[in-house]
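User: Here's a chain of 94 residues. Predict its fold as tokens.
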Amino acid sequence: MSRAARAAGALGAALLAAGCVTGGGGGAPPARSAGERLYRSHCAACHRLRDPGEQTQARWAWAVERFGPRAHLAPEERAQVLAWLQARASDAGR
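Assistant: Prediction complete.
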């Protein structure tokens, strides 16, 4: 067996094992946070959903402040959405 074939087999086995450990083999989908559920349900009503990593924390703060009322999000809901987005922003963890 060639070196490339062994490497491909090892990679495939690792991906299968990761799927089993993380629940990738079926079953219930992972639970979504309130912030994510609100983001998906309210923001998608007007436009495509953006990957949170596409924007910085400051840009998400601006967007939620500007568009949260238009999306009919109460202040506490806007805070939940913003926390979820900022935790996944391009500059999160810096």
